[in-house]
Amino acid sequence: MHRVSDGAEWLTPVPLDANLPAISPDHQRLLWLQRSSVAVPGGTQPAVNVFVSTITGDNVQQIPVEAGTNAVWLDAERLLFSRSQNAMTTLEIGNVVTNERFVLGTWYRLRGLSIAPGGESIMFYLPNQPDPATSGVHVLTTQAGEQPVMLPWFGGWRWRDAHTVYYMPFEPQADSQRLVYYDVRDGTTFDLTDPTTEPFLTLNGDWRVSADGRWIAFHSAADRNLWLIGLDA
Known about the structure:
Distance between the termini: 35 Å
Helix content: under 10%
Strand order of the largest sheet: 1-2-3-4
Structural class: mainly beta
Strand content: 35-45%
Shape: globular
Oligomer: single chain
Order of helices and strands: EEEEEEEEEEEEEEEEEEE
C-alpha cells in the first residue's frame, strides 16, 4: 500500500488464493475473500472466508458466511452479502463494527445489482418472474424490514448520486436511445436528451457516469468511438 498524501508505504499480508482486497468507501478498511475452489454452475458451492482489516492490515476480523457467498462494501461500515443457488439470490447486510446482521430478502433470478453512492439504496432487475406483474427494475432501501419498490420504467441505469439515476428506456424499435433522469425518492423524472436533435446508440449498453454526475461517456454503436454527453449540474 502507498499513501499519496505523505508517501508512507506498508505491506498488507493477504493469502495467495484470496482476491485483491477492496478498500472501504472511507478508505479506512480492507475487505478480501478467500474461496476453497472456483464456483461451477450446478456444482457444489465453494467454501468462502471473508476477512476485514484496517487499511494497514491490522485487526483482521473473519466474518462467518455460508458457502458460495460474495461480499462487497455497502458503505464505510457495512457489507452487502449475496448468495445464489437454484436461481434464488439472498441479500444480507452485516455491520463490521457492531456485528449487526440482517437479511434483506430472497428473490428469483435477481440481476444487475448496483449500489447507490453512500449505500443507502440498491437497485436490481427481476426478469421473467412467476408473477409477470413483478418483473422489472426495483429499488430497495438498505434497512431491516424494507421492501423493494418496482419502478415505472424499464431499461439500463447508472447511479448519478445517492438518490438519483440516469437511465435509457428499453425501446427496441427506436432509431435512437434517450437519456432520462429519475429520482428514486419522489419519482421526479425528465428527459435529458432529444432523439430528434441528439441521436445516439450505445454499443452493448456500454456507458458510464462521471463521479460528479455531469458527464456520460458511452461507446457508440455508430462508429465504435467513445463519446461524451455533457449535462447540467
